[in-house]
Amino acid sequence: MISRQPKADSSLRHFADSNGLTLVEQSFIETKAILNLSIPETNWVFFSSPSGARLFLENYQLNHQKIAVLGPGTQRTLTDLGKKVHFTGPAHLSPAEIGKDFLKQIQPNEKVLFPLSQISRKSVSGQFPDENKVEIVTYETLENSLKLDVVPAIIIFTSPSNIDGFLQENSLDPNTKLICLGETSHNYLKQLGIPNQIIEAGSLEEDWLKAINQLIKQ
To answer: Distance between CA 72 and CA 11 in Å, rounded?
Structure first.
């Protein structure tokens, strides 16, 4: 299982089909735009997720800003929407490290707009001095609990909020193997004291497939 909505073209789905695996694609959160906000003009805008970027562009105008994104998934979303991305965080870096790397691209007089969820950990924007950033909560992330009939043998968690949504109605089998897409989810599971085997696989689908292969061989 992966905790996201189905995508039109997914390497993970092709991998599951070709290896005789059942894949469940189920998000345990939903996002809702906050409307009628006053959005200032800035030099850059930084999107940390595909859903955050999509909701912002559906409801607000980009005022000639250059676009920066956390990773390849958000970059693909913006490219599909016809937007040019000027900075993409390296997939092997943590969000905090990406924030520090991105800050190096910013001129002293430039400002970056960070559209955030109300539960954002501000891992990227927290690396910026106040004079170079504008943080605005532009969407809400709400848990969408759902009881699964069977707990999967392997679960790919995409975010801490999806972990919380899953655990509202489901328990983890001690034998379930967990793959986390990034340091934040990995650390959150450890913080919860989850005893299951956990692999941090980053944001690239090819790395997820390697992790799944590793677990299958075990």
So the answer is: 14
